[in-house]
Write a structure and sequence with these properties.
Elements: H1 4-7, H2 13-26, E1 32-33, H3 45-53, H4 67-81, E2 90-93, H5 96-106, E3 110-114, H6 121-127, E4 132-135, H7 147-154, E5 162-167, H8 180-189, E6 192-197, E7 220-225, E8 238-241, H9 247-259, H10 266-277, H11 281-302, E9 307-308, E10 317-318, E11 321-322, H12 330-341, E12 343-344, E13 346-347, E14 360-363, H13 369-374, H14 384-390, H15 392-406
Parallel strand pairs: 1-12, 3-4, 3-5, 5-6, 6-7
Antiparallel strand pairs: 2-8, 7-8, 9-11, 10-14, 13-14
Helix pairs in contact: 3-10, 4-10, 5-6, 5-9, 11-15, 14-15
Length: 408
């Protein structure tokens, strides 16, 4: 009755932990939600106002997306990357996740997924019947593949088409790729397409964000959306920028879109124009200031001889490894933490690590972002006192984690 490849799939780990946390809270338990990666900040007021104004929009929009929205995105991305993207290169979807799925369905070749990677890359490749290859990474390289490891993998069969998924800043590690130029040299020499998942790019703590599309533009599909920087995950609006050289892929995705979601919600598309057209500099800068300070607070207070991790560089994730914990699996470890301390984190095995590696993903978003943001200015130094005042669960969660670590 159910296809075998579907039978073996589980609920998305990130969505599942959110439901578990809410269930425990409804039962009266005090849970620190370090598991689900959702922006804590409100959607910018200007964008919300535009949604209200356009609630009457009821017609089906073009499959590829509203012309004015695609135009505003192309101008936004052209300025951001110092490129010249056209609106014809943009395709709008109900979240970048759905567009990724359509890409998997369209692409004829193998998928290369770095370890660690976001939980949905692998299941989507399975559903689409694409063979996938994990490519190992190390902390010293910010958990990104080296050019050498990539070349070694594809040299096993150079005739195949490959799709490399590169996510920077990265979910789950919170790291930024620093060897993009070296990777791009391998891309240019071989039959490799890159899906550059840049959903956290506006939340890079360093101002000098680099996209791999700057180095091999004809081979890179850029993915982004409203969920992370704009706090609008539930609005479900994402987009791809597809180079002209990959028009066949874009046209195939349009066919699939026409047979699946038809078009993204009209009111949301009209409202999203404001997200890319208006100036949200202060909103983004405040978001980054708060997230960087909170990430560094947890990093500085949790790292020890028993806990190792890289300093956060963007987004809202840390990836601690607990050296003094000896469970059979990282899932068992995270269950123990949830049961004993009421702290929800995700096991590293959900992101491609071996089950026996005591590594995890921690999302530091369990605080009232609207309240925090409205009580600081661009000049405010976000210190421990402010974190205690406006993000008390961050302080409490870090304390519970430290206590759990020390009781090995």
């Amino acid at each position: 009755m159910i296809k075998n490849k579907i039978k073996n799939l589980n609920l998305s780990a990130t969505l599942k932990i959110n439901e578990i946390s809410k269930k425990l809270e409804n039962e009266g338990k005090k849970i620190i939600k370090f598991g689900f990666g959702e922006s804590p900040f409100p959607v910018p007021a200007k964008v919300v106002d535009e949604l209200k104004k356009n609630a009457h929009q009821k017609s089906y929009l073009p499959i590829q997306g509203l012309d004015d929205l695609r135009s505003s995105i192309s101008k936004y991305e052209s300025k951001k990357k110092n490129k010249n993207f056209s609106s014809e290169q943009i395709i709008i979807g109900p979240g970048s996740k759905e567009l990724m799925f359509l890409l998997h369905l369209s692409f004829d070749g193998d998928i290369i997924i770095p370890t660690p990677s976001w939980v949905s890359y692998k299941p989507q490749s399975i559903i689409a019947d694409n063979q996938f290859h994990w490519i190992e990474t190390v902390a010293e390289n910010n958990w990104y593949p080296s050019a050498e490891s990539l070349e070694k993998l594809i040299f096993k069969n150079k005739e195949k088409n490959y799709l490399l998924i590169l996510n920077s800043p990265n979910n789950p590690s919170g790291q930024v790729c620093k060897n993009i130029k070296e990777i791009s040299e391998i891309i240019k020499k071989n039959k490799i397409i890159v899906l550059s998942d840049e959903i956290y790019s506006e939340l890079t703590f360093d101002e000098n964000y680099e996209s791999i599309s700057n180095f091999c533009p004809e081979k890179v599909i850029v993915s982004n959306g409203l969920s992370k920087w704009c706090g609008a995950g539930g609005w479900r609006l994402g987009y791809f920028i597809i180079p002209n050289e990959l028009n066949k892929l874009k046209n195939s995705m349009k066919v699939l879109a026409s047979e699946t979601f038809s078009a993204v919600s009209a009111p949301i598309q009209f409202a999203a124009i404001s997200a890319f057209k208006d100036d949200h500099y202060e909103y983004i800068l405040k978001s980054k200031k708060i997230l960087k300070s909170i990430g560094e607070y947890i990093y500085n207070n949790l790292k020890s001889n028993n806990v190792v991790m890289n300093k956060p560089m963007g987004g809202f994730y840390l990836m601690p490894e607990f050296l003094n914990k000896t469970f059979n699996t990282s899932t068992e470890m995270c269950t123990d933490l949830l049961n004993k301390k009421g702290v929800a984190i995700l096991p590293g095995s959900d992101f491609g690590f071996s089950t026996e590696k005591m590594i995890s993903r921690l999302s530091y978003t369990d605080f009232n972002g609207k309240n925090f943001m409205s009580n600081i200015s661009l000049d405010t130094k976000v210190d421990e006192d402010l974190i205690k005042k406006f993000a008390p669960k961050i302080i409490e969660g870090t304390k519970r984690l430290k206590d759990w670590v020390e009781k090995a």
